[in-house]
Amino acid sequence: MRYLHTMLRVSNLDQSLDFYCNKLGMKEVRRIVNDQARFTLVFLAAPDDDGLVEESKQAGRAAPLLELTYNWDPEELGESRAYGHLAFEVDDIYETCARLQKAGVTINRPPRDGNMAFIRSPDNQSVELLQKGEALPPQEPWKSAPNVGKW
């Protein structure tokens, strides 16, 4: 058995692609548009997973991926947290959070410990950011930043 992908329903494909690609740095690797069933699937890979994705194609299917499912007919997605969250390892959690915050992303759980932060996608899915390697020493403004909203 091997892990292939996680599927998330999204209500606005453009907003979601802006969040996952432009702000988080993921790359689109495949797109499926089904006019008859009225949906679009977009498969994304994290930048550091390029080699894994290419290698995994030899086993039959590309992995690890994030699948964004956009149903063309409007639907209310709600704010379910039953699935938990997505998690990404980052080279510098402080730089990543500062860059995301500057791009308009709310840091729901700041990286006070130099190790972990949480943000939300445009569809309110929780996204965890984890520092690669050892935690960075706590530093301001993150050390004293409060939680904002849900994470």
- Head-to-tail CA distance between termini: 31 Å
**CATH topology annotation of the largest domain:** 2,3-Dihydroxybiphenyl 1,2-Dioxygenase, domain 1
Number of helices: 3
- The chain-level structural class is alpha/beta
Query: Got a strand count?
Result: 8
Which CATH architecture of the largest domain is right? Roll
The parts where pLDDT drops under 50 for at least 5 residues are none
Average predicted confidence as pLDDT: 91
Largest sheet at a glance?
Answer: 4 strands, mixed
Residue share in helix: 10-25%
CATH C-level class of the largest domain: Alpha Beta
Shape summary: globular
Looking across the biggest beta sheet, what order are the strands in? 1-4-3-2
| Helix-strand topology string | EHEEHEEHEEE
Looking at this structure, what is the CATH superfamily of the largest domain? 2,3-Dihydroxybiphenyl 1,2-Dioxygenase, domain 1
Report strand %: 25-35%
In total, how many domains does the architecture comprise?
Answer: 2
List the helices and strands and how they pair.
Blueprint: E1 5-9, H1 13-23, E2 27-34, E3 39-45, H2 50-57, E4 65-71, E5 86-90, H3 93-102, E6 107-109, E7 116-120, E8 126-131
Parallel strand pairs: 1-4, 5-8
Antiparallel strand pairs: 2-3, 3-4, 6-7, 7-8
Describe the overall structure:
This protein has 151 residues and is an alpha/beta fold. It has three helices and eight strands. It has a four-stranded mixed sheet with strand order 1-4-3-2, with helices on one face. A four-stranded mixed sheet has the order 5-8-7-6, with helices on one face. β2 and β3 form a beta hairpin. The radius of gyration is 16 Å and the shape is globular.
